[in-house]
C-alpha cells in the first residue's frame, strides 16, 4: 500500500461507463449495482467524483437524478467539448495536482486523448470498475470524519468562494453574512488522525512548528493536566471540517498553550485570533495567567503576529517557573483581561472548568 499516490478525484464518463447504454440513442439506460456500490464506496473514502461526458447536459443530469446519483458528483462537465479540456477545468477548480486525478471511460480514444494532453492523469477502462475499490490508489490508509464529508466540504467551498467573489463592501460584512460557528471540543480517540494530519499541514499557522503524532496526542488526552482540543468551523454554506488543534497544559498558576495550529485556508476567517481570545478568556475565568510556547520557523510569521496582537510577550513572572526548557522555544506571557467578543463568528466551546467524567 505504501508508495501508491492516492487518487483524490475520479472523473467518470457516463455512456457505457457509469451506466449501460447510450442516452441519446437508447433513451433508456441502466445502472449496475456494482457501479452504484463503487460510487458510494469511493465517496465514503473521501474520494471526490466528477463527470466528463459528451451528452445533453439537462438530459444527462435528469437521468443521474432519476438514478439517485446527483449528490455524489461535483463540478460535472457535460457537453460537446474535448474531455481533456473538461478535466483540465475540473483540476483547475479543485487546485489538485494532475497525478491525483483519475479518469474512467469505455472508449480507448477518449482515454488516449486525455492521456496525451494531461499525461499525469491516470486513465482506467470501464471494465475495471468492479476492481476499483481494491486498487491501492483508491484505498486511503486512514478514513477520517472529514473524509466522509469531503464532498460536502468542497460543495460548500465552491458556493462560499462564488459569493465572496461577487461580494461588494467591507470584508467584515461578508464574514458576518456567513453565520460562522466555531466549535471547540475535547478531541476523542477517533479525532486523532485528522488532528495529527492538521499539525502536519498547518506549518504557516503552527506556533512552534512541532508536529505531534496521534500517539503522543493520545497520551495527552489521557493526562488530566493536558487538554487536546479540536476546532471545527461551519457556516451557512456547510462544513469546513476540522480547522484547528490546541494543546493546553494546566499549570498551577497558568494555562499554557503548547500548541496552536490552524489551517491556512481559514486565516482570512479570523480563526486564529478568535481562538487566542477564547483561551485568554478561559484563563481569566480560571484566575490564572496565560503562557504560550513560541518558536520562530521559516513559515509561521503570521502566528507570531497573532500572538503579539493578543498581547502575549516575553516578560518575567513567577507563573513561568519551573517550565522544562525546550530548544529554541520562547515562553510568552500574558495576564488575562476581559476579551472583546468576536463579532464575525459564534463560538460553541467545551467548558474547561468542567473535566470529563
Ligand atoms: Zn504569570
UniProtKB/TrEMBL annotation:
SUPFAM superfamilies: Acyl-CoA N-acyltransferases (Nat), HAD-like. PROSITE patterns: GNAT. It comes from the Bacteria. Signal peptide: none annotated. Gene3D superfamilies: 3.40.630.30, HAD superfamily/HAD-like. Residues 182-339 form the N-acetyltransferase domain. This is HAD-IIIC family phosphatase. It comes from Streptosporangium fragile.
Amino acid at each position: 500500500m505504501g508508495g501508491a499516490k492516492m487518487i483524490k478525484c475520479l472523473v467518470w464518463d457516463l455512456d457505457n461507463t457509469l451506466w449501460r447504454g447510450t442516452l441519446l440513442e437508447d433513451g433508456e439506460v441502466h445502472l449496475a449495482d456494482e457501479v452504484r456500490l463503487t460510487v458510494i464506496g469511493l465517496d465514503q473514502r473521501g474520494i471526490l467524483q466528477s463527470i466528463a461526458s459528451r451528452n445533453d447536459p439537462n438530459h444527462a443530469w435528469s437521468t443521474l437524478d432519476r438514478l439517485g446519483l446527483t449528490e455524489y458528483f461535483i463540478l460535472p462537465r457535460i457537453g460537446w467539448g474535448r474531455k481533456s479540456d473538461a478535466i483540465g477545468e475540473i483540476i483547475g477548480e479543485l487546485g489538485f495536482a494532475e497525478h491525483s486525478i483519475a479518469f474512467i471511460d469505455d472508449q480507448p480514444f477518449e482515454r488516449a486523448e486525455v492521456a496525451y494532453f494531461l499525461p499525469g492523469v491516470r486513465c482506467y477502462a470501464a471494465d475495471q470498475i468492479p476492481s476499483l475499490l481494491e486498487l491501492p490508489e483508491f484505498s486511503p490508509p486512514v478514513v477520517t470524519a472529514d473524509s466522509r464529508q469531503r464532498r460536502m466540504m468542497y460543495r460548500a467551498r465552491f458556493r462560499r468562494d462564488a459569493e465572496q467573489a461577487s461580494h461588494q463592501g467591507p470584508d467584515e460584512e461578508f464574514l458576518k453574512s456567513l453565520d460562522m460557528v466555531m466549535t471547540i471540543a475535547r478531541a476523542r480517540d477517533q479525532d486523532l488522525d485528522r488532528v495529527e494530519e492538521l499539525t502536519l499541514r498547518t506549518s504557516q499557522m503552527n506556533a512552534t512548528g512541532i508536529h505531534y503524532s496521534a500517539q503522543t496526542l493520545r497520551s495527552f488526552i489521557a493526562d488530566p493536566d493536558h487538554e487536546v482540543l479540536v476546532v471545527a468551523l461551519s457556516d451557512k454554506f456547510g462544513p469546513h471540517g476540522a480547522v484547528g488543534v490546541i494543546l493546553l497544559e494546566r499549570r498551577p498558576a497558568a494555562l499554557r498553550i503548547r500548541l496552536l495550529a490552524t489551517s491556512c485556508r481559514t486565516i482570512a476567517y479570523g480563526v486564529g485570533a478568535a481562538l487566542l481570545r477564547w483561551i485568554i478568556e478561559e484563563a481569566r475565568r480560571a484566575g490564572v495567567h496565560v503562557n504560550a510556547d513560541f518558536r520562530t520557523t521559516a513559515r509561521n510569521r503570521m502566528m507570531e503576529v497573532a500572538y503579539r496582537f493578543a498581547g502575549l510577550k516575553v516578560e518575567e513572572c513567577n507563573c513561568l517557573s519551573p517550565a522544562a526548557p525546550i530548544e529554541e522555544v520562547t515562553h510568552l506571557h500574558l495576564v488575562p483581561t476581559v476579551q472583546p467578543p468576536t463579532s464575525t463568528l459564534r463560538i460553541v466551546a467545551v467548558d474547561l472548568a468542567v473535566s470529563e467524567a
